[in-house]
Automatic annotation (TrEMBL):
The lineage of its organism: Bacteria, Bacillati, Actinomycetota, Actinomycetes, Micrococcales. Residues 23-369 form the Acyltransferase domain. The keyword Cell cycle does not apply. GO terms for molecular function: acyltransferase activity. InterPro entries: Acyl_transf_3_dom (IPR002656). This is Acyltransferase. The keyword Transmembrane helix applies. Residues 383-392 have a biased composition (Low complexity). Keywords: Acyltransferase, Membrane, Transferase, Transmembrane, Transmembrane helix. It comes from Leucobacter chromiireducens subsp. solipictus. Residues 1-21, 381-400 are annotated as: Disordered. It holds the Pfam family Acyl_transf_3. The chain crosses the membrane at residues 27-48, 78-101, 122-145, 157-177, 189-206, 212-231, 243-263, 269-286, 319-343, 355-372, 404-421.
Amino acid sequence: MTLVVPAHTPLPDPPQPRSRRDPAVDLVRAACLIAVVTVHALMVGVSLTSGDPAGAATGTAGGVVIENALESWGGFTVFSWVAQMMPLFFVLGGFASATHLRGLRRRGVRADAYVALRLRRLLPVPLAAAGAVVAGLTALTLVGLDASLVAEAGWRISQPLWFLGVYVLCSALVPAALRLHERAPGRTLAALGAAVLCVDALRAASGVDALGFANLLFVWMFVQQLGFWLADGRVPSLRTAGWAVAGIIALMALGASPANLFAALNPPTAALALLGVVQLALFAAARDRLRAWAALPGIARASNAINGAAMTIYSWHMLVVIALTGLLLATGALTGATMLLPVPLTAEWWLSRPFWIATASLAVAAVVAVVARIERRPDPHRAAASGAPAGAQNREHAPQPGPFRTVAAVLTGAGGVLLILVATGALWAWLAGMLLLAVAVRLASPGPLAPAVIRAGRAAAPRALAPRPQGS
């Protein structure tokens, strides 16, 4: 892992925060998000067959087959080397976090206040989405839909949630990780790389795959740390990227990582950490050209719109795609129009994918246009937290939640996500996870805690979606 620490460019001393957003970073973050939505839409495979009414264990019920459509595709492994964008997403997230926190530190913002700000930015959107999932799964249950199909829908919708849980933890650790980076950048990155390799080695030696989930923290912290290097203007060369590719191939040859880089997500392996090095080097090499593209008016507008609703797109897209699939399934079952649901990987299925992706994208865009105001809503406590003069709103004068409540908010929010994932998206887990997310949002906000916690379970999603009075 130490090969990824470049030595050819000195670090600024002290690191100078950037005063403006980097349009190349914003453009690529938007492109990564588009790639994630597209891949998830492609993975959804639903078809009507003779089925197995007792096939809940295989994802079938009453003639319905639900599967990951790409798992049986011969080209999926090669496709994963191009389409696996999560390491780059975390690299660019680390860049944004470093520049944001450095700017706030110059105004005297404490580490816990920064984390509370991040939680108030990240969690309300998935809270509303979780409320919508609870409402949807409850409605499907009440109308008598086969329980295995309801469970399958809840699980499929929950699968992208791992990112939220990991991103919350990584964001909470940014103040400490950035301090370590500024004191000893090379040693910090090497230590994280060594931890990643140790986890992979212990997993391989013991045969206990569950040990690999420790790398949900170490791999993504390593990749986030690369974003701090990018913020300092120090990036790996293309030669270093070549060595990282060789490392990935070696890991796969040794059986330490799947050849499919999507399979390498669960649990994450050192191959993804090295992929982050490769993607950072390629991004740095193309940065000037990307900035030129990002300056084009149409691309700039699209990039700004996507980045302004990034958490909304990520939190809601799978719910929308599954709902759209259910609509097609119901239409096909009622009308007998099986051509609406071609068997995955057949010629008919591939020919229908452009139309399916376009339809799913329009549906996601329509939903995002309605619910994105949650993400774009100004934080009424931001002025007090950032050291700016408080406005007329009384709540801006409220003290920040403090370290204890902030830590509790991080653990509660990540715990709510973990509960949903461990329970494979069961309805009860979605409900409990929604309540935990609501408590986390309240913990991260200033003001008295107990009354708000009592109210947290009362229709979280409808409250979040309802228009707010001016000045509230």
